[in-house]
C-alpha cells in the first residue's frame, strides 16, 4: 500500500447516534413542557393576587358604605385578614420561585436542544464515532449552560413529552391511558391551590354579607 487507508469507526449499539437523538428529543420536549407549566404558574399566581386584592377592596367598600344590611363583622374582618395574608404569601411565592425567569431559561434550553436535534438528525444513519462524540459534547454543554437555572421536578413533564414521542416510546393503549390520567391528576393537584384560595375567599365574602 502506498498510502494510509482511512478507517471510519462506527459507534456500537449501546452508544448509538439513535440513542443520543432520542435523548436530545426527549429532553427538548420535556423542557418545553416545563416552560409552559411555569408560564401557567406565573399567570395563575398573578391572577390570584389580582382577585384577592379586588376581594379586599370589595369587602372594604361593603363595610365602609354599608352596602349590605346584614353585614357579619366577624366574617368581614376574617375576609380582610385572609385576603391580606394570601396576597402577601403569593407575592413572596412569585418572587421566590421566579416562574417567569425560570420559564424563559427552560425555553432557551429547549430551543438550543431543538437546534442541536436538527443538526444531529442527518447523522443518525451514518452513526460515526467522531460525529457522535461531538454531538454528545454539545448536548452536555447545553445542559451545563442551562441546568443550574432549571432545578425542578421534570417527571410529569417528561411523561407528557413521552406521550408525544410515538416513534421513540411505543406504548400500548392501557399504559397510555394510565399515563394520561396520571399526568392530568398530578397537574390538577399542582394547580389546585389557586382554585382553593379563590373558593375560600368567595365563601368568606358570601358569609359576610
TrEMBL record:
Signal peptide: none annotated. The chain crosses the membrane at residues 44-62, 77-95, 185-206. Keywords: Membrane, Transmembrane, Transmembrane helix. InterPro entries: SLATT_5 (IPR041115). It holds the Pfam family SLATT_5. Residues 16-200 form the SMODS and SLOG-associating 2TM effector domain. This is SLATT domain-containing protein. It comes from Vibrio gelatinilyticus. The lineage of its organism: Bacteria, Pseudomonadati, Pseudomonadota, Gammaproteobacteria, Vibrionales.
